[in-house]
Every structure is written in C-alpha cells, then in structure tokens.
Design brief:
heterodimer, A: ten-stranded mixed β-sheet, about 25% helix, B: alpha/beta, six-stranded mixed β-sheet, about 40% helix
Chain lengths: ~450, ~250
Amino acid sequence: MSALQEPLERYRMLLDAAAPNLPGREIAWLATQRAAATQQLLQSGFPTRKTEAWRYTSLDRVLEPAWEVPRQYGAALDIGEYTLSDDAAARLVFVNGHWVAELSSTHALPEGVYMGSLRTALEVMPDTVATWLENSAAMRLSAFTALNTALLDDGVWLHISAGTKLTTPIELLHVCIAQDATPTAQLRNVIVLDDGAEAMLLEQYTGIGEAPSFTNSLTEIRLGRHARLEHARLQDEGPSARHLSYVCLHQQAHSRYRGLSMSLGGLWSRSEYHNRMCEQHTQFELDGLYIAGGHQLSDVHLAITHAVPHCTSRERFKGIVLGQGRAVFDGRIRVEQDAQKSAAELHNANLLLSRTAEIDTKPQLEIYADDVKCSHGTSIGQLEPAQLFYLRSRGIGLDAARRLLCQGFVMEILEGWHIPALHTRVAQRLDRLLAETPQADSDPH
Amino acid sequence: MLTVKNLTVSIEAKPVLQGLDLEVMAGEVHAIMGPNGSGKSSFAHVLAGRGGYEVTGGEVLFEGEDLLTLDVEERARRGLFLALQYPVELPGVSNLVFLRESLNAIRAARGEPILDAVQFMKLARDKATLMQLNPELLKRSVNAGFSGGEKKRNEILQMALLEPKLAILDETDSGLDIDAIRIVADGVNTLRSPQRAIILITHYQRLLDYIEPGRVHVLSGGRIVRSGDKALAVELERKGYGWIAEEVAA
C-alpha cells in the first residue's frame, strides 16, 4: 500500500458521508461537476513534495487527521471582537462553512447588490449560479479545489450589478469552531462585479477552540470592464487550524483588483492567487503580510500571467518568521510573448528572527515579451543592530525595541490599507509571538 | 557627575582608547576635539553602551555608579543621552511613537507619571517649535527621508524631551550649514543648566562659537593629551592638530 492511499481513502469516506446533505443534488450540471471533481481527486490523489508547487510544504498536517463536515452550526456567537469596520454596509457570517442568517446583516445594502449564501442562491436562482460556476475551471487547479468542488456546499454569494458603487465596505466573516470535533469547512465563494461596479471587501477567517480544523476555501472573483475591487483578506484562525485558500481572478478589460493577503494565525496555512490576465489594461495589485512563529507554517503561492498587452501587476509581500516558524513564498509572474507593454513588479522581504525559523522564498519572473517593464527583488534579514542600539539608547527596552522595529517593518504594507482594526490585530499577534520567543534564541547581538 | 579613569578600549583587539581620564561636573560644558581616528566617537559610543567595543581596563562612574555594567537602555534611563553623528533611520516607526515610547520609558524609570497621547502631543509640538522643526516631521518615520539638518534637529528635540543629566553630542555640527548650526546650538543652549552636563565632540572649533565650553580637551591616540579653556580650541583652529601630536611625541 503506497503512502497516499490511506489519506485518500479517508477523504473518500468524507465525501460519502457529506454527500446526502449537500445542496442542489437535483441540479444536473452540479451533480456532473461534483462527480467529475470526485473522480479527479480519487484518480490523481494528493500532491507530494515531488510536485514542484508543493516542494517546500508538507501536506501531512492536512492529510493525517480524519475531518468531518459538521452539520450543525450555532447562531449564539458574539462576533463583536472580529469586526474590522465600524461602518460596514453589510456583513455575512459563516460558521464552520455554513451561512448563519441570524448573525448576518444585509438589509442596508443599496439596490443592485445581491448578497447572501451560495446555498440559498442554488435554491432560488440556480440558473444564475450556473452562469458562473458551471464552466468554472477552478476545480482543476489542484486536488484541493477538486475536493472543494466535490463537496460544494456553501459560501459567499455576492453579485454587484453594473455601475453600482459601494462607498462602505462589506465584511465577510468565517468562524471555525473546533472545540472537540475536527471540522472541515469547504467554502466556495463567488464574487461578481459587473461593468463599472466598485466595492471593498473585508474578508476574515478566524477560529474558536484549539482542536484541529481544516478550512479549504475557493474564491472566484469576476470583474467586469472598468470594475474595481479592493479586497483585504485576514487569516487569523485558531492555533491548530489548517487553512488553504485559493483566490482565482477573472478580469475584464480596464478592471482593477487591489488585494491584501494577511496570514497571521493557524498552524498550517497556504494562500494561492491565480490570475491569467487575458484582457488589456487590467490591473492587479496584491500586498501581503505573513507572520509565523511557534510551529506555524505560512505559505504563499502566486501564479500571475500576463497574456495580452498593457496589463500591470504588482505584488509586494513581507514576512516575519520567528520561533520555529516556517514561511514559503513562491511567486511566479509570467509575461507571455504577446503581452507587450506589460508592467510587472514582484517583491518579497523577510525578517528572520530566530535561528530555528526558516524561509524559502522563490520569486520568479518569466518574461517572453521584449517590450516590458518588470522588476523583482527578495531579501531576508534580521533586525539591524544599529536600529536596536538607537532605540535602546533612548531608554526603550530591548523587547519594546524589537516590537517597534517589527511593527515598522510591516507598516510599509499596512499603511496602504486604512483599516485600524487590521493594524491592531497585527500588533497583537506580533506582541504575542515576540513574547513567546526567547531573546537568547533570536538575537545574535 | 562623570568620572572616567584610565579607560582602555579595543575594537577587535585593536586599541582605540588608551588610558583616557576625564572628570565632568554638573553644570559644565566640555568639548572634546581631536583629529579623525583619535577615538572621539568611540569614546561617545562606549559611554552610551554600543556593542562591538571591548573595555580592557579602567572605569567609568556616572553619579558614583559603574556605568559600564549597565545595559544601553539603563544608561539612558539614568540620564545619559548620546546625540548620534549619524542618526539612524527607522522606516515605518513613527517619530511620535518613538519619542513617546522613549519619554515614557525614561519617565517611568524616574518615577514620573506616564504622559497620555494628548499631553505628549502638546509637549512634542512645543519642543519641535523650539527646535524650528516642522511638526509634520513628527508624524513621519524616524529620520527616514529627513535632510541632514532635520536629522540633527530631531536628535536635539529628543534631548529636549528627555531632559538628560549628561548629554553627549557626537559631531552634531558635521554636515550642517551655518544657519542650521545656529538653530541646533540655540536648542542646546536653552538646555544648559546647573544640573546638566554637556560633552561636545567636534572636529572643528566653529560649533564652540555658538555653544561655549568651559573646558576643551584634545584627544589623540586614544588619550586626552591636553586640556584647557576655550582658548585652546581657538589655537587648534589656527594651528591644526599636528603640533599637538608632535609635542606629545616629543
């Protein structure tokens, strides 16, 4: 028996157990898609370290536990502490992968915005859902997008019609409760902005409880011509959480996506962004921040392709790794032969704060066109002794000095996002991890 | 206030200070002059506690306490301040946050109440005005993108906020034009008091036209080879450092 068969068998049992409770079982295209996804998963199995995209990240923590799709989800939950914006236009709340109506509020949304759960949308407008999901190729990205499709159940459903411009953010909150069971949430989020629509999304994944959990989310974003989306994602899950998220973009001409990917929590987490820019004058900007301490692993995977001329992409990620934390940054920008006048920038800077921490960074810029403006850079460093001395010479203790310098390091990313709650969450996480990390282990000076 | 006895210091086994003696009393202003490489900046850094220097002999007492066994931040909390020749840039760290953390750490050590954000803001603005420093610079990252003059004024602003007992100014005049020197000097002069001592480390005499020292010392080869009053600085300006080295050699 090969090593892969055992987890695959466990996942087959997971699929069988979940199947009777999945929504839309009578919808033909969905049944076909789930069957195809199941077949893809069972035939191809899970990737191994020999697969290039998984070279630095072991899947053991995801494959070993026996996950279950929880059927019950409570509504009695105080979500106040997770609020990221005081003036949100609407809030959708999911607990263990299921929409909780009682905690959500969408009544203040203006006309032209349709927001709710995918489960409801499958019931009331299956044809509209089919428009965007029936031919989706996202399930073929990996074993986990296939798994997500095979278990397609619930998630965010957001459709903003042409020309509708939201002036206040929409909050999406995913809470994973893992107190005794080992739940898995397979989220499928569909976000569609028609031509000229504008919105800001604040998406957050958080957790309650210390038992292992597995969030596997697949988000497809479709931006019409001249549409603009600002999309901040915060992964701040519980201490034993496994978190995998795929964001797949489909951008039409002149659309602009500006994202922030923050990974703070969880034991094992990986975020992937996939964008093949096939229409001219599209813009894709992504800021990112990851902090990994303790035994955390944080992995970022970017696959951005310029397929036509006049598109721009800019990715700027910063990370702090300490304790026995590990981070992986694998950013790949591909500029194809036809994509003249492309502008692409890819930057990754890291602070490695202990001898036992590890970073694998691999920024790749593949350029097949000759008239382009591209740059990339990467760095791994430590806190500057001269900076530490300067702060200490002003009476500031070593712990506070390290904290200030770490906060300064991430500020370059955060300052472009005026969301004070995010700044606070980062500061809290840094304080906790720095306090956990013995100085003797971290600072050669 | 400060007593330095026969201090010897090395960097990577290379001696930089070789038997330095100095006595500074409260209320005094001392200037330490000397050619490049004479050990002036090393002396300042050793007092502040910068890493990389090995004290191989002698002692330094600050208000009767052995200074050399204290951590960098403890020295600052006891009232020692070093204005750096090259103030360090701290990208992403707001000047206001830096100044407030610093002042509150030192106030806490002095047993004084912590200032809240409003009280601190008012104080910082007042001191910035005194230093003719654009208050906008308070909101920016520490020293990042500051001009040379702004960096030096930001150092003196810190000194004005922290109110140290002993301030050491390491080449604060270097890289400044005459107008900037006058602003910095005015700031320093307002901080002169019978309770406070100041050590000016400088290569040139011109700063001493604006901040008048009571004592002038010449550092050469890691030792103070001559001390005098302000007239010594004028003589050095006229004759250069060469004659002193020759005299010492002879």
